[in-house]
Design brief:
binds 2'-O-acetyl adenosine-5-diphosphoribose, 9 strands, single chain, binds zinc ion, elongated, six-stranded parallel sheet, alpha/beta, three-stranded antiparallel sheet
Length: about 250
C-alpha cells in the first residue's frame, strides 16, 4: 500500500503535465471553511429531511423550513475560501486548470479568485420573490434568514437561485460542464460523495474520453474505482501540498 505522500506526488505529476485540467467540487471542499457537508460524518442530512427542506415541492409548501435549514447551511455566512479554493485559483492562473465545475452554492471559488466557475446547482447570490418579482442580493441574506418575508409584498416565497431537488439543472451550465469533462486531460474531483446526478455523470464522461482522474475526499465513495489516484484526506492541506509539488515540478 503506497503512502498518502506518494499519492500526493503522483497527483502532482499528473497535474503538472496537464494541458486542460478540470476541477469538480462538492460540499467537502468548503468543510474547512466551516460550512457543513450534506452526507458523510456529521452531514446535514442526518439532521434534516432533504425532501422537506431542499425539494422544490417542500419549498413551495413551506419556504420557512428552507430558511431555517439555511441557518445551518450558511452558519458562517462570512465563511472565507480555504487553501483548497485558493490552490485551484492558482492552478487556473498558472494555465493548468481551465474550468471549475461546482455543486456548491457558497461562491467561495469566485471569492478565492477562480475565473471560470460553472455553478451546476446555482448559488445563493440572488433571491427572487416568486410573488412580486422583487430581487434580493447576497448582502440581504442575513436579514432574510432572520425574517423570510418579502419587504415589498410580504410573501414568504423567497427563493434563492439554487437548484432544489426536483428542479432541472441550468441547461447551458450543464452542457458546458459536460463539454469541459469530455475535453479535459485531467479531471480532479474534490470533496464530493459523487452520488447526486446528473453531476455524478461527469467523471464517467472524463474517463470515457481518456482523461486521468484524481479524487480527494475525506471518506471513500462508491466510485473510487474510476480514479487513477485516490487520496482519502482533507481537501485544504492536500491541495496545498499538491500545489507546492506542481510548482516544484514546473520549475
Ligand atoms: P456531500 O455532502 O454529499 O459529500 C461531501 C463529501 O465531502 C463527503 O463524502 C465527505 O466525506 C467529504 N468531506 C468532508 N469533509 C471534507 C474535507 N475537509 N475535505 C475533503 N472531503 C471532505 O456533498 P456533495 O457531493 O457536494 O444538492 O453533494 C451533492 C449535492 O447533494 C449537493 O450539491 C446538494 C446535496 O443535496 C442539492 O441541494 C441539489
Ligand atoms: Zn414580493
Amino acid at each position: 500500500m503506497d503512502r498518502i505522500s506518494d499519492r500526493i506526488r503522483k497527483a502532482a505529476e499528473i497535474i503538472a503535465k496537464a494541458k486542460h485540467a478540470v476541477v469538480f467540487t462538492g460540499a467537502g471542499i468548503s468543510a474547512e471553511s466551516g460550512i457543513p457537508t450534506f452526507r458523510g460524518k456529521g452531514g446535514l442530512w442526518e439532521k434534516y429531511d432533504p425532501e422537506e427542506v431542499a425539494s422544490i415541492s417542500g419549498f413551495m409548501r413551506n419556504p420557512r423550513a428552507f430558511w431555517e435549514f439555511s441557518k445551518d447551511l450558511l452558519v458562517k455566512v462570512k465563511a472565507e475560501p480555504n487553501d483548497a479554493h485558493k490552490a485551484i485559483a492558482e492552478l487556473e492562473e498558472m494555465g493548468i486548470v481551465k474550468a471549475v465545475i461546482t455543486q456548491n452554492v457558497d461562491m467561495l471559488h469566485q471569492r478565492a479568485g477562480s475565473k471560470k466557475v460553472l455553478e451546476l446547482h446555482g448559488s445563493m447570490s440572488y433571491v427572487d420573490c416568486l410573488k412580486c418579482g422583487a430581487i434580493y442580493v447576497w448582502e440581504d441574506i442575513e436579514k432574510i434568514i432572520d425574517n423570510p418575508a418579502c419587504k415589498n409584498c410580504g410573501s414568504e416565497l423567497l427563493k434563492p437561485r439554487v437548484v432544489f431537488f426536483g428542479e432541472p439543472l441550468p441547461s447551458g451550465i450543464l452542457s458546458e460542464a459536460m463539454e469541459e469533462s469530455r475535453k479535459c486531460d485531467v479531471f480532479i474531483a474534490i470533496g464530493t460523495s459523487l452520488v447526486v446526478y446528473p453531476a455524478a455523470h461527469l467523471p464517467f464522461m472524463a474517463k470515457d474520453h481518456g482523461a486521468k482522474l484524481i479524487l480527494i475526499n475525506a471518506e471513500p465513495t462508491d466510485k473510487d474505482y474510476l480514479f487513477d489516484v485516490v487520496i482519502h484526506d482533507k481537501a485544504a492541506p492536500t491541495m496545498k501540498k499538491i500545489l507546492e509539488k506542481v510548482k516544484e515540478l514546473r520549475g
